[in-house]
Amino acid sequence: MLLSKSSPDLPSNALLASFFLLHWLLFTPSYWRAYFQQHLPHCPPDFALADLQRPQWQHHAVRRVIFLLHGIFPIFGAGLAGLILGLMGVSFENGLLAVLYALIFGCVAGILGSLFISVIFGGIVSLLGSFLLSLPIGMAGDVVFSMAKNIAIAVIFSISGFNVETKSIHSEALLTIIFALFIAGIAGSMMNASTRSHIRPSQHRQVGSVVIGVFISVITTSLMATLTTLLARTAATLTDSGLLFSLVYDGLIAVVFACSLALIWGWYTWRWREGMVLGLFSGILLSGFTLLVHLFAKNSPYLELFLVGFHGGIENALLYLLLFAFPYVLAKRIANPWAGIIAGVFGSAGIYIAFMVILERHEMSHILLISIIAFGLGLTFNWWRPILFYPLLSAWNLLVYHKEERRNDTQKSRLFWHSVFWDEYQPLHLLGLDHFLVLVAERNPELGHQAIEYLSSGAQSWAAQAAQIEIDARRLQRCDTVIAISQAHRQLAAGELSGPASALLRSFSRASCDVEAALAQESSYNQRLALNAVEERLDGLLRELTRSSEPYALRFRPIAADWRRLLSDYAQRINKAMESRQELNNPYVIGIPLTEHQEIFVGRSDVSEQIERLLLNNGYQYRCPPLLLYGQRRTGKTSLLNNLGKLLPSTIIPLFVDFQGPTSLARNYEGFLYNMARAMITSAKRHRNVILPPLTRESLNTDPFTRFDEWLDEIEESLEDSQMLLLASDEFSALEHVLTQGYLDEASVLGMFRHLIQHRPRFKILLSGSHTLDEFERWASYLINVQTVHLSYLQASEALKLIEQPVKDFPLRYEEAASQRIMEVTRCHPALVQLVCAEIVTLKNRQHVAERREARLEDVEAALPGALQHGRFFFADIANNQVSPAGLQVLKKMAAAGENQVVSYAELQRYCPADADVEKTIENLLRRELIEPLGDGYRFQVELIRRWFI
């Protein structure tokens, strides 16, 4: 597969690999999921480093990602911050302070975020935190505020009641809070997009988890601040030295941070010893920088910038992540990561906002409003970012399209440059994408097909569908011969599309199939007849397209016109060739059921009268039991059902459903009922020009049987008082395969038919199949009081008409002996009569023109070997599928006895294998209408079948 995300990998170059990671997080989270599914298959995509076991920590992919996220990303952020501040005209010293702060903040905050929250959160904080949170530092020329110290000071002042003039907090402090909320929102949005979890806890559980997390976070933070304040006040009473006070105070801050970090790690992982080591390390690191600031910062301005920047970065990173991590971990355990993000924001940003209000006396409403907007923008980043960038993407995609147009065949396609393949969040239609896909598919069909399949689901599926329709339209347009038309259906995607274009493509697909079937006819006459039927349907399609206002009507109308012209020209050439050779038309149809449009269908008046009598015996208002039309294979059951519209009164509307078609191929109830309804609607329109109410597949998705029953109500309401519906199901026994395979439940499906029989008197049921009533016994509880209609051989007068007058003005004349011989060898079996007669016409067309117009007895005998050869599938089905091995042996022995010879029961006993049941064998042959009793023995019913078994 050219378009695959199964095994993405990172380049060996660290700089390039970091860009890949950033692209995965921002644009294609599916690559992120696939990468860790490959390397850490048992971890979720938003895993935290604290979740990993020791062997997983040693995995090369994990260590490399940690290095890229927390080594390269902070450098990117710091460099970008320095560039922006330089462009803003900030002094070199302030810019250097901001860059140093960005580096250490990105590294520390990113690592802590990856440890406790997720590597996605840590990576975003490493990059955006180092960039955005360092900008206010550079603008202010100082660490805007040391959050830990100022929280403690605020608590001291509020407790003591002192009215001390605090250090003025610039607007950059508020900007820092806004940026922090924005970064947290973006990180949460990235985590949610990368996991794509479909399991959502209940709403009350999510809200509860947020409240719990925030509550515990506020209590813990208040205790930390109060403890720090009390310790600081105690330190202040013990010494008057400002330096000593600062060292003691900063040391206490480091101790509180270290204990908090150890507490979170131990509670998160239950590995308390490692937590103590981590907390001790962080405390020593922060205390060490505090000491260095106080001892050496005054010696050199640049050394002071270095120490202050690193000290402030470490301290604020610890506070930012610890305040966030504690409520996050609590809410995540109770609900999910999304609730953890919300709790973390409230637990951390809430403290910052309280700090601003206490120290600066800011308006609470203003700060809250700005904070909510900042956090909301972050959470919805994946919603507004594609819309904001849409004009730029459109311009880029246009350049890619023109580049693809101008490339030569030796150059690689620019398909993957298009934004649809590297931006998974774009909800808006990318204009021109359908034309781009068509352009690629015309040059590289395989690549184009895979691109369309790749885009067939999602926001850009419209482009895949539009491109597929245009590709199919071009394929149809390139069909410049009848042979090409007959092969067109093999490449159409009609079944994969939806909407009006799908119906159009299905019409063309059916026309192509019918042309292929027409060309497969052996006789020129049948070819011309079938092609004329296709031409008539295309003519009707043209009229519909002319009246239609659908968007694709204008595109497909010229194609339909060209096809109709090609078929008309081809049919005329067939006529001219037949006239020049003075060939006999061969109207006999072999191997396929006759439709209502074929003149050759004759007889069956006795069967149709019996059906009509059973249906109307008591009037439609009374319950009519179901009818079973049964008979041997190829006796014309399907042909009869196809012609019921001509044989029954106009008040009876035949609804023909072929259970050997799509209906029995369904794998769920929606497909079964939809295909059944579609066949019923088509049949009503074809036989009686009655338009039944539509039934869409989508409406069946929720409760298929209830919706189908409602649809039947709609049909009954649309009928006139005198009308009734005959649901004629062909090869009903084919449904047995679907039921035994377990795709559909027997009780549900057959129960629906039973309900239809019992409670819908205007619906009549006619089942057709090769099974006899005895073989339907397992369904007897559903088919209540079924009435049988047996379809056997034609009557002699019907068979004679089929032989001598299959169509009007048939030029071939039969001697009486010839016609009689055909009826003798076929027993008036409709399929065998047509088989022999078709062979006779073929034979006569090989003779001299002077002998061609009359069929004699010797012509019949000469045609029989060819009939046996051309009908071999009919006869082989009897031998292979309808009789047992014992029955096959009996038939072969009986065939050797000769034409019309009677074989006694005693002889049949000798023919039958010793281990076979003679009675059951004979009973099966009788039921299959292969033999018949005569006198004290049995003989073949049909001479032509006997000859096959010789």
TrEMBL record:
SUPFAM superfamilies the record matches: P-loop containing nucleoside triphosphate hydrolases
Keyword match Hydrolase: no
Keyword Magnesium: no
Keyword terms: Membrane, Transmembrane, Transmembrane helix
Listed transmembrane segments: 12-32, 65-92, 98-131, 143-162, 174-195, 207-231, 243-265, 277-297, 309-331, 338-359, 365-384
Name of the protein this chain belongs to: ATP-binding protein
Protein species of origin: Thioflexithrix psekupsensis
